[in-house]
Design a protein that fits this description.
The chain is built from two helices and five strands. The chain is of the alpha+beta class.
């Protein structure tokens, strides 16, 4: 894989049609939210954030990483993601 390309999520121009997958873990003390965005034909962005119950997702430090189609495909089928519902949905979308 190539070097990870982190993005400033605040500069992303996200429109509803860019969202391919959105997944939030079950309500708990610590929660996570993962979003797969399609930037263009061959580029995807995974936006993820985590928070504890003291805060909400509005207080989350989000991370956005850009991947090529090949990179996201390898991640979606990687055994180390095991039973991740988010990555199962990613595999279906790409």
């Amino acid at each position: 894989m190539s070097k990870v390309k982190k993005l400033d999520w605040k500069t992303l121009d996200i429109k509803p049609h860019h969202i391919l997958v959105a997944f939030t873990t079950e309500p708990d003390y610590e929660m996570s939210r993962y979003i797969l965005l399609k930037k263009d034909y061959d580029t995807y962005i995974v936006l993820e954030g985590h928070h504890c119950s003291c805060y909400d997702f509005d207080e989350t430090e989000w991370e956005a990483i850009e991947y090529s189609r090949d990179e996201i495909g390898k991640l979606a089928t990687a055994t180390y993601y095991g039973e991740s519902e988010f990555w199962k949905q990613v595999a279906l979308q790409i």
